[in-house]
Write a structure and sequence with these properties.
Helices cover 11% and strands 42% of the residues. The protein is mainly beta. The protein has one domain. The strands form 4 sheets. Strands 1, 2, 3, 7, 11, 17, 18 and 19 form an 8-stranded mixed β-sheet that branches. Strands 6, 8, 9, 10, 12, 13 and 16 form a 7-stranded antiparallel β-sheet that branches. A two-stranded antiparallel ribbon has the order 4-5. The longest helix has 15 residues, at 200-214. It is globular, with a radius of gyration of 17 Å.
């Protein structure tokens, strides 16, 4: 069943897609998950770490928080003056930043699949994270113009100004489950990451059904609707 999502006063429909489970909260970041493909080659799936697994959730439910989000990894055509564009990945750092090197991995990493595995629509994720505030620290976008591929990336140094999260942030507490939004490309101007959202309580409840189907062990009776807070990559919205 398509769900309705919103960008300010503009809405669109996103078909629901499903995703495989990877890694545990105690495991290393899974940025290179692969599967066997034709001709003996390997093809990288989308990966998002640290994705929740039942054993870790049961053992650390009161000490860690759960973050719900969805991502559309699909290619967008005629996107912001480019022939097509793709969201390839993004990351969040737990604050404070301290002296983290520009190339260091984030505390939450999302990597898109290779083109052969790209599908339109939302893929849903639940992450188990230590409590705290998390700032957007990296965005990776690939776009094509006149057959030439271009990288439209934002680094940690561009998303942090004097230690402040210039790109935006979200918060999660110990024992909490929070929904922070749906992430996809915005093509109105140049291709850019955008935080959309489930609009209205009915659509929000429909989206929670997708998390219940994928993660039947999660306790989702009390989910906080607390969007990734940003003035650069999304518009404010309060659930009525």
């Amino acid at each position: 069943m398509p769900l309705k999502y919103a960008l300010g006063n503009t809405s669109f429909n996103g078909s629901i897609m499903f995703f495989y489970r990877c890694g545990s909260v105690l495991a290393a970041l899974l940025l290179g998950a692969t599967l066997a493909a034709c001709g003996g080659t390997t093809t990288k799936r989308a990966s998002l770490a640290p994705e929740v697994v039942e054993s870790d959730y049961t053992a650390q439910r009161s000490a860690l928080g759960v973050v719900l989000l969805a991502v559309n990894w699909g290619r967008r055509w005629n996107c912001g003056g480019f022939q097509h564009a793709e969201l390839r990945g993004f990351a969040f750092d737990r604050l404070p930043w301290g002296g983290r090197p520009p190339a260091a991995a984030g505390d939450m990493e999302a990597e898109g699949p290779e083109a052969v595995l790209m599908r339109p629509g939302l893929q849903h994720y639940a992450l188990q994270l230590p409590p705290g505030s998390y700032a957007l620290s990296r965005v990776r976008i690939r776009a094509t113009r006149d057959t030439a591929p271009l990288a439209l990336d934002l680094s940690r140094s561009e998303l942090a100004q004097d230690g402040a999260p210039a790109g935006g942030s979200f918060q999660v507490g110990a024992g909490e489950t929070v929904y922070i939004g749906n992430f996809a490309l915005n093509c109105e101007q140049a291709p850019m990451l955008w935080r959309y959202y489930a609009q209205g309580r009915e659509n929000f409840q429909h989206q929670l059904l997708e998390y219940r189907r994928k993660y039947p062990f999660l306790k989702l009776d009390e989910v906080h609707y607390r969007l990734f807070d940003t003035s650069r990559f999304g518009l404010p919205y309060q659930l009525p």
